[in-house]
């Protein structure tokens, strides 16, 4: 029997898991502190020094300019990459010929190191948002494409035939058949894409941009301001945690409860 009783049984497991997660975070902070004390302030700031810099950093006018540009690039790049991968995956799921045609490009993009894409994009687009968004879109699309195609291939053929019998149009088929069937793998792919998109945007900005969080990171590294450098790292980690634990994971849990079969 599932429902409230199973939720009560899972509660101690969830509390234990969270307690060990907190312990893992404390161990990481302790290891960071010990490494910083061993390496010295020139190479690594302590956790307290990084936290102390966050306040003045957030209050500076450059913070909102750099953070706003990076958030725009992350949003546009991830949305464009996810939309492109989903659209191509839906089309390829219906056509084996198109799947075969796209497969070499998919393999090439997933096998190519991101730094190579950054160098090529700098040559094609120069420095700025176009280059960063292009890189993020190009590197995010294959993951969404693969998950969409795999989900499409596992949709029950009888359900597809039923929609054809009842003459469902493309929109009704997408809404009532494909989206419910693909929601779990697509949300997992979106979680990976959102977190990976943050890393890609920051990396692209470090290597070749005139503003953004990565540009501020590169400046802090150039001036050997390790406290500001690690403060930016903590802020980036906070953004990734916000995306994953506040938005995407609750959405996944709600979807899981909705898809869970109910028993009397």
Automatic annotation (TrEMBL):
GO annotation, biological process: transmembrane transport
Gene Ontology cellular-component terms listed: plasma membrane
Family membership: Belongs to the binding-protein-dependent transport system permease family.
Organism: Achromobacter insuavis
Residue stretches spanning the membrane: 71-93, 105-125, 131-149, 177-202, 229-248
Membrane topology: Multi-pass membrane protein
Name of the protein this chain belongs to: Aliphatic sulfonates transport permease protein SsuC
Cited Pfam families: BPD_transp_1
InterPro entries: MetI-like, MetI-like_sf
